[in-house]
Design brief:
Rossmann fold; two-stranded antiparallel sheet; 5 helices; globular; Acyl-protein thioesterase 1; cell membrane; lipid metabolism; nucleus; carboxylic ester hydrolase activity
Length: about 230
């Protein structure tokens, strides 16, 4: 651990009830910490799965008048054609890949790891899964979008995760990241990876948040793609 990682505290972790044979790494949204999501995941946990909810470093965010807050990368605007923090997004993805490597060192193979996140964290989890050389079990992308979408080639990706399972969820009343972003993202994903493996769920009346129904869908997805091995 070197460089600016020192400023971020250690992740919030929900340990496995028995020997961990799988892991979920879940990234929170802008201005949040990993604690709330670790509590939410504790409510749907499986005994063989370890849940890791890292905290983003604190940095000035252009969208919020340069106020410093926990953020995985800078957000300049929230329209589809807003400029993006390419350097920051790529650096954040490298940091997530290092977290995955850490779990592999701990004895959990990467194909037994699901990457997930909410809003900015979901965006980062999608970007990381599509650019990493680590084969993952799946991605949970809540209320989010695909960053740097123009940087991906047209058509299917050639990487190890071209068959990855994705659960993408969005509220139909989201005022911050409109449902249209989710719909555009799912279309792009289906052109890049096996469309049969992409599930898009929407929740009536849900704003930029989560709900019980969504968490049950997340649990079902995790249980399906990270079944017990013993």
């Amino acid at each position: 651990m070197c460089g600016n990682n020192m400023s971020a505290p250690l992740p919030a972790i929900v340990p496995a009830a028995r020997k961990a044979t799988a892991a979920v790494i879940f990234l929170h949204g802008l201005g949040d910490t990993g604690h709330g999501w670790s509590e939410a995941l504790a409510g749907i946990k499986s005994p063989h799965v370890k849940y890791i909810c890292p905290h983003a470093p604190v940095m000035p965010v252009s969208l919020n008048m340069n106020m410093a807050m926990p953020s995985w990368f800078d957000i300049i605007g929230l329209s589809p054609d807003s400029q993006e923090d390419e350097v920051g997004i790529k650096q954040a993805a490298e940091n997530v890949k290092a977290l995955i490597d850490q779990e592999v060192k701990n004895g959990i193979p990467s194909n037994r790891i699901i990457l997930g996140g909410f809003s900015q964290g979901g965006a980062l989890s999608l970007y990381t899964a599509l650019t990493t050389h680590q084969k993952l079990a799946g991605v949970v992308a809540l209320s989010c979008w695909l960053p740097l979408r123009a940087s991906f080639p047209q058509g299917p990706i050639s990487g190890v995760n071209k068959e990855i399972a994705v659960l993408q969820c969005h509220g139909d009343c989201d005022p911050l990241v409109p449902l249209m972003f989710g719909s555009l993202t799912v279309e792009k994903l289906k052109s890049m990876i096996n469309p049969a493996n992409v599930t898009f769920r929407t929740y009536s009346g849900m704003m930029h948040s989560s709900c019980i129904e969504e968490m049950m869908d997340v649990k079902q997805f995790i249980d399906k793609h990270l079944p017990p091995v013993d």
